[in-house]
Amino acid sequence: MKTEKPPRVALITGASRGIGRSIAIRLATDGFSVVFNYRSNPNNIAELITDIESRGGRAMSARADVSNEAEVGLMVKTIHKLWGSVDILVNNAGIRKDQLLMRMTESNWDDVLDTNLKGAFLCSKAVLPVMMKKRFGRIVNISSIVGLTGNPGQGNYAASKAGIIGLTKTIAREVASRNITSNAIAPGYIDTDMVKELPAELRNRIQSMIPLGRLGTAEDVAGMVAFLCGEEANYITGQIIGIDGGLGA
User: Residue 219: what pLDDT?
Assistant: First the structure.
C-alpha cells in the first residue's frame, strides 16, 4: 500500500501582514503546512490559523526576531521538533527607515540591514542543514525593484535588497547539487501598508509610470512564490524575478 507523503513545511518570515501574510495564505491553500513568523505584531494570526485549520490545512505561528541568531535557531529547532522539517523558506521580513543618506543615522542603517539582509542570512543558514540532509529545499527571498535601481531616501533599504540578490545567487551556487533552489522576487510598488503611507500625489505619480497602469497586489507576489515552491520550478535557481507591472522593463 502506497503511503501518502506529509505536506511540505513552509516557513514565511514577517507573515503577520501584507505580502508575507498573502504568501502564507496562498501556500496553505496549495497544500503546504505553513508557519507564520512574526516579531512583534501577532494581530489576526490566531484567527488566520483557525481559518486555515477549519479548512483542513496546517498552520502555526512562531515569534522570533530574524536578526537574532539564537531566536532564529530556536524557531527552526521548534518547527523541526513539532513538524519534522522546514522544506520551504520565504525570507520576507523587512522594515524601512527612510532618510536621505547625509541625514541617515547609523542606527537607521543598522536596523534595516539587520532585519532585511542579516535576517535572510540567519534564516537561510538555519534551515540549510535540514534541507541538505533531505536533499530538497526551496528558498525564496523577497527583494525589491529598488535593490536593482536604487531610490532617493532609501539608501539603507536599497542596499539591503541589493544584498539579498547577491545572497540569493550565492546560495543557489552553493547548494544546487543537493536539489535546493534559491530565487528572489523583486516586487515593484505593491499596494500594501508601506505604499499606503506615501502621500496620495506621490502614489498617483508612481502609478502613472507603471506600464500596466496599476499598483501590484500582495497576491501577485504570492502567486510567483507559490510557483517557485512547486514542482514546475524544479529547474529554476539563482534567478531574480521582477513583479513590477513593467516598471523595470
Answer: 97
Q: Which residue has the cell 529554476?
A: 236
Q: Which of 38, 157, 189, 235 is catalytic?
A: 157
Measured in whole angstroms, the distance separating CA 65 from the mean position of its chain's CA atoms is 14
Active-site residue 235, yes or no? no
All residues at 6 or more sequence positions from 109 whose CB lies less than 8 Å from its CB, including other chains: 155, 156
What 3-state DSSP class applies to 132? helix
| Nearest residue to 32 (alpha-carbon basis) of 222, 234, 240, 243 | 222
Q: What cell was used for 160?
A: 539591503
Whether the Cβ atoms of residue 9 and residue 32 lie closer than 8 Å to each other: yes
Say if residues 203 and 210 touch (Cβ distance below 8 Å). no
Q: Is 32 left (phi over 0), alpha (psi -120 to 50) or beta?
A: beta
pTM as predicted: 0.94
- Residue of 137, 226, 156 lying closest to 185 (CA atoms): 226
Annotate 52-64 with DSSP letters as a single string.
HHHTT--EEEEE-
**Confidence at 211, pLDDT banded by 50, 70, 90:** very high
How far lies 160's CA from each of 63, 70, 79, in Å?
A: 22, 21, 27
